[in-house]
Amino acid sequence: MKKFVLSLSLIVAFAFYILFSRDSESTLIVPNSGTNGGQTSVLPPSPAPTPLAKKTYNDGQFVGNVADAYYGNVQIKAAIQNGKITDVQFLQYPNHGGHTMEVSQQVMPMLTSEAIQAQNANVDIISGATQTSQAFRESLGNALRQAAA
């Protein structure tokens, strides 16, 4: 019976957490399992995360280093206007025909779009194009380091 009550208490505590985690003024009541006689503890809300400062870049076009993507090289050129990434172009990409070319054609627009939206090189790795994604991040990261200098 004790295990059931403890489990139920944890479920209730988790439900409270979910309900009140959106409201930064609320507190979270967590049942204690026994060290202080079964009393509850009140946890203050965690502070809201501060938004990351958006990085601005110097205007111009910056070419990243060539990065090895196993099936071919990737090299990226980033265009910066008004301190923001406005365009990303593949100067080199795996294009040895067949499946490699097909994968490149599918992932290049996705990586480009995500980098422009994120305004940095920290794009998600695309399943099935892991090496190309990693090489993209490496080359674009190098171009953006040049733009930030």
Topology:
Layout: H1 2-20, E1 28-31, E2 40-43, E3 60-63, E4 67-68, E5 73-81, E6 84-92, H2 98-118, H3 130-148
Antiparallel strand pairs: 1-2, 3-5, 4-5, 5-6
Overview of this protein structure:
By secondary structure, this protein is α+β, with helices and mostly antiparallel strands. 40% of the residues lie in helices and 21% in strands. The protein is built from three helices and six strands; from the N terminus they run H-E-E-E-E-E-E-H-H. The chain has helices spanning 2-20, 98-118, 130-148, and strands at 28-31, 40-43, 60-63, 67-68, 73-81, 84-92. Strands 3, 4, 5 and 6 form a four-stranded antiparallel sheet that branches. Strands 1-2 form a two-stranded antiparallel ribbon. A hairpin with an 8-residue loop joins strand 1 and strand 2 (40-43). The protein is globular. Residues 21-33, 40-44 and 48-53 have low confidence and may be disordered.
